[in-house]
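Known limitations

Structure tokens in this collection are predictions and should be treated as such. Users comparing against experimental data should check residue numbering before alignment. To illustrate the layout, the record for DNA-directed RNA polymerase subunit omega is reproduced below. The input appears on top and the generated tokens appear beneath it.
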Amino acid sequence: MSVTPEGITNPPIDDLLAVTDSKYELVIQAAKRARQINAYYSQLQEGLLENVGPLVTPKPNEKSLSTALREINEGKVVGRQPTEEDLAAALAAREAEAEGFGGPAAPAEPNPFGEPTFDTGEQA
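Generated tokens:
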């Protein structure tokens, strides 16, 4: 008779680490997906559907992070690194947005109070 130990997380961390490249990537993927699931439920009440709901059937009273971890374990959510094209498109979108607010960011104005001074503890 073989008993599978029940850990804090189900699926076990070792199984999840086999799916992702590192524990840090796992944390980032799970956190982002859990936020998307929470946003989905919030928007569902408002009648908006901007986010994708759970890709696995949630268990009763299951937290969104647990649902996200199960999605990652089943291969329904896969993280990917942004490509050069993705980064260029994001930069272009950011620049276009900045132009919509009055052009590129203006250089910082000089400090109106003069140069900063530091107290060295000595009397002048």
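For this record: The chain has one domain: 13-100. The helical segments are 13-19, 23-46, 64-73, 84-100. Please report discrepancies through the issue tracker.
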